Write a sequence for this structure.
């Protein structure tokens, strides 16, 4: 199985006045193509910093990040930006769709920014929306969509083109249970198509969709779940009383 | 799990044989609760003794004996469905007790104890969620059971998270209340289920 993300001994330190804040401490993390990894921890544990560093939006103080085989520390700023546009998709809690663009335009935007013609980008955008059951919403603006639909558009944007790595920060935060579950199914189906995903969350129900859950505390990965057992172990269980 | 009321519910659809009741009980609960045939017949005998079901007099005992619900049984079922379960007083929860003990032991890292349980619970939740991934194959009974288990386990993880945070804050700024026993009034009100 190919690795789409590898973090090697990554640390990130900030200065808060004269105090050093260790947001991440020697984090090692591997994500293979086709797998979903959840990073679970409370507020302030470093999980969002981990995601922004994995997504090349922020640079580590020490250590290295390798995305789709490319070491970020060895790349120029322009190359990093290109890799970000071509290989990495982001999903945020508040969707981050541009309000002046339609659903299709929002999805096509990363491809256009990467130099694809407007026509081809739009066609790829429509295909991505179609796959997520949103073809009929392509011409709607974000404020004409429900919360669940907006997040599905954001996922279409994150997986459009040749994105290999999907990074999601509390992607179901503002959604009800049914819509949250629909969002997790979409991320899972992106993984089945070969994308590697990292979902950071404080929510155990959300994390339980992942193949592997790692637990982060005070900037350190302190624990992880064992390889997932099949559901048979549950059904053999408890006799009725 | 009340087998007694589950059997009454099945009989409220029409007369059934003992073996049939067992099969339908297991199918409706997503086969999460296996039931042995002895439990079914013992329960049916008690329901008959209490006047909640009637059996065929002419048929001999065994697999071919049919049972049907009485008016009293239907009333009992309707009352049970609406009766709140005993959630009013906290149960003696083994996990809560373990964490309370770990807090007091000087050589034990309570955060490590909490994390061990958190990991175990999340692993269990992964197994339940795995069942949901194939929703097309999941019948309604099982889907409802899976949701109930996930919400139940999730509430335990949330409690562990809250306990972890509370203990961490208390270690930074120890409040006097941490070691003070609960007042008599609070203790009396929170009668613990045994």
């Amino acid at each position: 199985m190919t690795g789409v993300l590898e973090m090697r001994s990554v640390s990130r330190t900030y200065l808060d006045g004269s105090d050093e804040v260790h947001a991440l401490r020697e984090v090692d993390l591997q994500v293979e193509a086709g797998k979903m990894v959840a990073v679970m921890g409370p507020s302030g544990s470093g999980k969002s910093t981990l995601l922004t560093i994995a997504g090349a939006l922020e640079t580590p103080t020490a250590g290295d990040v390798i995305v789709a085989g490319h070491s970020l520390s060895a790349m120029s700023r322009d190359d990093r930006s290109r890799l970000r546009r071509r290989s990495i998709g982001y999903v945020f809690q508040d969707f981050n769709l541009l309000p002046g663009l339609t659903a299709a335009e929002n999805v096509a935007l990363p491809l256009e920014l990467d130099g694809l013609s407007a026509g081809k980008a739009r066609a790829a955008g429509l295909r991505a929306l179609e796959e997520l059951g949103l073809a009929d919403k392509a011409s709607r603006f974000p404020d004409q969509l429900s919360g669940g639909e907006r997040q599905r558009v954001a996922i279409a944007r994150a997986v459009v083109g040749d994105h290999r790595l999907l990074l999601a920060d509390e992607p179901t935060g503002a959604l009800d249970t049914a819509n949250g579950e629909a969002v997790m199914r979409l991320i899972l189906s992106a993984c089945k198509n070969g994308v590697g995903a990292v979902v950071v969350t404080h929510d155990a129900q959300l994390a339980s969709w992942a193949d592997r859950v790692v637990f982060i505390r005070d900037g350190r990965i302190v624990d992880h779940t064992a390889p997932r057992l099949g559901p048979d172990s549950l059904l053999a269980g408890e006799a009725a009383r | 799990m009340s087998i007694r009321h589950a059997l009454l519910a099945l009989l409220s659809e029409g007369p059934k044989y003992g073996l049939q009741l067992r099969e339908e009980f297991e199918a409706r609960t997503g086969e999460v609760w296996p039931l042995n045939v002895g439990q079914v017949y013992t329960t049916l005998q008690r329901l008959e003794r209490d006047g909640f079901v009637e059996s065929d007099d002419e048929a001999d005992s065994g697999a071919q004996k049919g049972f049907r619900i009485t008016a009293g049984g239907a009333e009992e079922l309707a009352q049970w469905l609406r009766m709140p379960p005993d959630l009013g007083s906290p149960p003696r929860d083994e996990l809560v007790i373990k964490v309370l003990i770990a807090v007091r032991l000087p050589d034990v890292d309570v955060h490590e104890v909490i994390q061990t349980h958190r990991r175990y619970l999340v692993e269990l939740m992964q197994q339940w969620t795995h069942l949901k991934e194939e929703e097309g194959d999941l019948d309604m009974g099982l889907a409802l059971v899976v949701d109930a288990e996930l919400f139940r386990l999730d509430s335990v993880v949330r409690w562990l998270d809250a306990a972890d945070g509370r203990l961490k804050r208390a270690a930074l700024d120890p409040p006097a209340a941490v070691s003070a026993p609960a007042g008599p009034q609070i203790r009396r009100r929170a009668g613990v289920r045994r």
